[in-house]
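Action item from last week, closing it out:
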Amino acid sequence: MAAGKKRANGEGSIYKRADGRYVGSAFVPVAGGGRRRRSVYGNTRREARDALDELFRDTKAGVRRPLKRQTLGEYLDYWLEQVVKPERRPTTYAGYETMVRVHIKPVLGKKKLDEVGPAEVRHLLSVLRDKETSGRGGGPRKLSHRMVQFAHAVLRNALSNAVREELVSRNAAKLVKMSNPEYDVGAGLDPIAARALLKHIADDRLFTLYLCAIVLGMRRGELLGLVWDAVDLDGHRLVVRQSLSWVQGRAVLLPPKTRASRRVIPLPEVVVTALRDHQKRQDDERLAAGEAWEDTGFVFTARHGAALSPYTLGKYWRNLRDAAGLGTLRFHDLRHTAVSLLLALGVPPHVVREIAGHSDIKVTMTVYAHGNLSEKARALSQLGATLSGPPRSPTTTSRVY
C-alpha cells in the first residue's frame, strides 16, 4: 500500500504527531474480552505501518493484548513476585531482584512492555557495558562482562514468561545475541603448593574446612551446611544433602545445587583424622561458651556454634590467603584444585564428576580439566621426543599412500 493511501476500515489508522513521530492505532482484542484501541509508534510512516501490521498479525495468531498497558518495570515487579519467588531458590530470586532493581529498571523500566524491541535491549547492554561500579577497594570499575551477560539472561527469562502469558508476541532479548557465558576456571594449586598451604594453616580453627575443600572438592555452601548427622566417621563417608546460603542477613538451608550434587563422598583417612580433631576442638569451644553456645549441629560454625556466614568465611579466607602469599586465589579455587589434581592423577572423569557433584561431565572436562604449565611442557616434550626419535637407517624408505 502506498505511503499516502488511506487504510480501509479495520486496518487501523496512521498519523503524524507534533513531535514528528508517527502513530499507528487500531482496535484489537484484549485480555478478559472485548476490544480496545492500541497504538504503535515509528520514526517514519513506514515504521509505524510495519508495527501496525505486526499488531494485526498478532491478533490473527490469537494474541490478546493486556487490558492495561504496563511498563517493563511494572511487569518485572510482577514477574519477580509471582513467578520467580514461588518457583526458584531464594538466592536466585535475590540475584534476579538485585539485577532488575539496580541495572535493568533504571534504563528500561519506564518503557512500555510491548514496545521493548531488539533496539531497546541493545541499548540496555550498551549502557551496562559502560557502567561503572565501586570496586572492593572503593575505586570505580566497569561492570564485568559476566554481569552484562547476567542482565541479558534475566531479561530474556522475564520476556519468555511474558510470551507464555501472551503479554507480548516475541521475546526481544532472544533476538539480541551475546557471546557464550565466560567461565572463570581459576588457577588452582599444584600438589606442592597445596601441601604448603595446608602446612601453613595447620593451626587454624577452620583447617578441616579448607582440607575438605581441597581434598573432597566440596562447594562453600555444602561445607557450611554440613551437619554432624550427615558425617559417618567410623564408616569413612559423609552425605551432601543440603547447602547453606545467606539471604537478607540470615542463614537459609537449601537443597543441593543440582540432583547430582546430592551425593555420598567416601572419606580418606587424612580427612577422617582432621574431622575427629575438629570435633574435639568444637567440644572444647562448646564447654567454654557455656549457655552462650548455639547448638545448630553444623560441623563448621562461628565460635559460639552459630551458622557461619559465607561472607565471614570469605573474610577469613582472604586474610589467610594474603598471609600465605597466594595472591588472588579464591576460596572456590580450592574446589578447583581438588578436581584438577584428581584428573591429573588419572582418575576417570566420570568418577571425578561424581565426587565433585557436577551435573554434567562436560563441566568436569571443559571448566576444570586443563593442565598446569609444567604438565603441558612435559607432555609436549614427550611428543617431541616421540617425533624426533633415533635417526632412521639410510636404507629405510617410506611411502605415502
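Closing note: Residues 13-60 form one domain.
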